[in-house]
Amino acid sequence: IDESDLPHRTKMTELIEERFKKEFESMRVEMENSPGRIAFTMDVWSRVNLESYLAITAHYVHTTPAGQ
């Protein structure tokens, strides 16, 4: 692989942000149309070097048409 084959860091940032927005919207619509309630769980932790993390998980029912 040659360096010119890789996207520039600003282009890579742009591509990641675009993908995030697309996936976020898809997930939002899917949960909005779920038949019932949505349960959320959260977990917070940190590493020894004080890096903090937050995880959020959504649990919901997703229905699909018969045969899919």
UniProtKB/TrEMBL annotation:
Domain of life: Eukaryota
Name listed for the protein in its UniProt record: HAT C-terminal dimerisation domain-containing protein
Species whose genome carries this gene: Schizophyllum commune (strain H4-8 / FGSC 9210)
